[in-house]
Amino acid sequence: MNEISTVPHKIIGVAVIWNNQKQILIDRRLPKGTMAGLWEFPGGKIESGETIEECIEREILEELGIKIEVGKHLITIDHTYTHLRVTLTVHHCRHLEGIPQAIECAEIRWVSVDELDDFTFPEANVEIIAALRKNQNNN
Ligand SMILES: Nc1nc2c([nH]c(=O)n2[C@H]2C[C@H](O)[C@@H](COP(=O)(O)OP(=O)(O)OP(=O)(O)O)O2)c(=O)[nH]1
Ligand SMILES: [Mg+2]
């Protein structure tokens, strides 16, 4: 057997959704399944024929029931967990309409960039959060 990785690869659109108070929306994953109970930035798998921006807009409507405007690209992370490889394409987004609801997650919160330290995220998110800190003043 060779060493070429055969773990499943998921292409994910991820949203850093800002409100007018300079807060970001985070959600807590369900208590069962992959990365159970960890906090994340909302998003999900790209569907065929979709751009990453369309994917993000659709996922946010499905998962949280809100309308957003997808803006600037923040960072793309390619990360391999033990049994899964993910490519996370992260965009800054602006909350436009609707009150976020925990439709497909356990809990949601608006937090400041500084408060992100108080929540446990998957390993791949360390770099996203570092990029957010750096970009804090020019988004
Ligand atoms: N949405 C999101 N996913 C993340 C982040 N960090 C991170 O490692 N991931 C991983 C967790 C999941 O394996 C994958 C997101 O895929 P998903 O939301 O479509 O998949 P899932 O595991 O929740 O559910 P499923 O539909 O595959 O059953 O990316 C993040 O900040 N946001
Ligand atoms: Mg998801």
Uncertain runs: none
Distance between the termini: 47 Å
Would you tell me the overall average pLDDT? 95
Number of domains: 1
Q: What percentage of the residues does DSSP assign to strands (E)? A: 35-45%
What does the main sheet amount to? Answer: 4 strands, mixed
Count of individual beta strands: 7
Distinct compounds present: 8-OXO-2'-deoxyguanosine-5'-triphosphate, magnesium ion
Order of helices and strands: EEEEHEEEH
Instruction: Report the principal-axis shape.
Output: globular
Rg, rounded, reads 15 Å
Q: What is the CATH architecture descriptor?
A: Alpha-Beta Complex
CATH class placement:
Alpha Beta
| CATH fold call | Nucleoside Triphosphate Pyrophosphohydrolase
**What is the CATH superfamily classification?**
Nucleoside Triphosphate Pyrophosphohydrolase
Strand order of the largest sheet: 4-1-6-5
